[in-house]
Amino acid sequence: MAPIPSINSRTTSSNWQSKVEMLKMASISRLISQTSSGATSRRVLAGILLACAGTLASAAAPTIAISDGWVRWLPGELPAAGYLTITNNGDKPVTLVGMTSPDYGMAMLHQTTNEGSLSKMIMVDKLTIPAHGKVQFSPGNYHVMLEQPKRSLAPGANIQLQLKFSDGETVVAPLPIKPPGTTQ
Question: Taking the model in full, what pTM does it have?
Answer without folding.
Answer: 0.67
